[in-house]
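can u do me a favor
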């Protein structure tokens, strides 16, 4: 999982920055995987924002400790 994040996160983050993700945004990430983008989103939207990270397997997402993060598991 970490290898995929290392390869794809820089392009994903650039795209999110280009669309203007910033403080107070409310974001949904589907297929959140290891949680690296969810973590970036939590830090970027700040305490006034909200992030929902959804996946079939959420063990990595549950390890993230952000008050503005909700984790949804789909089975």
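np, heres the sequence
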């Amino acid at each position: 999982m970490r290898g995929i994040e290392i390869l794809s996160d820089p392009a994903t983050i650039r795209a999110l920055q280009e669309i203007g993700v910033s403080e107070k945004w409310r974001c949904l990430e589907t297929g959140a995987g290891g949680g690296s983008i969810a973590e970036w989103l939590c830090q970027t939207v700040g305490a006034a924002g909200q992030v929902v990270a959804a996946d079939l397997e959420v063990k990595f997402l549950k390890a993230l400790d952000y008050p503005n993060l909700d984790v949804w598991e789909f089975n």
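The first strand starts at residue 26 and ends at 30. hope that helps!!
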